[in-house]
Amino acid sequence: MGLNLTGIHHLTAVSANIRDNYRFYTNVMGMRLVKRSVNQDDVRAYHLFYSGDKRGTPGNDLTFFDWDVPREQRGTHSINRTYLRVRGHDALSWWADWLSENRIPHAGIQEIDNRAVIFFEDLEGQRLALVDDGGQGDTHLPWDRSPVPAPYQIRGLGPIMMSVKKLLRTDWMLTNVLNMRPVRQYHHPEEGVVHVYEMGPGGPHAELHVVEQANLPGVQPGAGGVHHVAFRTPNEEEYHEWSQFIKSSGIRNSGEVDRYWFRSLYFREPNGILFEIATDGPGFAVDEDPNTLGEKVVLPPSLEQRRAEILTNLKPID
Fold this sequence. Notes:
alpha+beta, eight-stranded mixed β-sheet, 5 helices, 16 strands, about 15% helix
């Protein structure tokens, strides 16, 4: 098959405390809120998009649905850690001090899979890691209003780690359907043996790390957990090809969905984790001035006529 995904597009998680979530990811993590919108399938809930760069370039976006739900009960069949990339050991050293200064518990700098990492969690237990990406990935566009100095700012997402009960079925989808390449294994001190799958050019921004954990119970989704991960496809032509290929492979899917800022296709891998394929464009500046991204609630045209009703149901976060 000639189609290739090019990396992680975005990851969407769940928060039950969206005001503190907003403060944590902007004030502590130094990310920019590049789109302040609502869940297009549940307009009572915010959908906030935080970016490691100033424009919300694909591959940078960590997004959250605002749902009043209990805390996630951890288990398998889940995405269990999101890595955020920085460049160099000096950046990780700065982050170790910064997290401590902000009273965020962390395990210090460790060496795992031949990469330096820091493991920690956000205020709701969202499992995160900072990783030295060695400068791989797209060129970083610093945000000049971040509290984090430009050389140390988050450069994007990846890798993404997920847990399944049965690797064999997931491996089939990753390799035979999504055209990922199994490239190595390593031992993770908390999770066990990790199987690494690579997309497109490879590198941490284009890796999915999978652990087989047959003895764990299944996850009970909730706040502090991940809803889905999205993978990049560069344009609408290849997106349509992916849509046809997923359908012809007999995989149940959402059909093509226009999210206005990108096009989406949703489906589940055999252990039940929700995947998305998303286009790189049109991008977040299609309906906002790049200098004021995220400063007001923006709705796709399909919801604009309901603006007054939608805004009434949203709580303030600033």
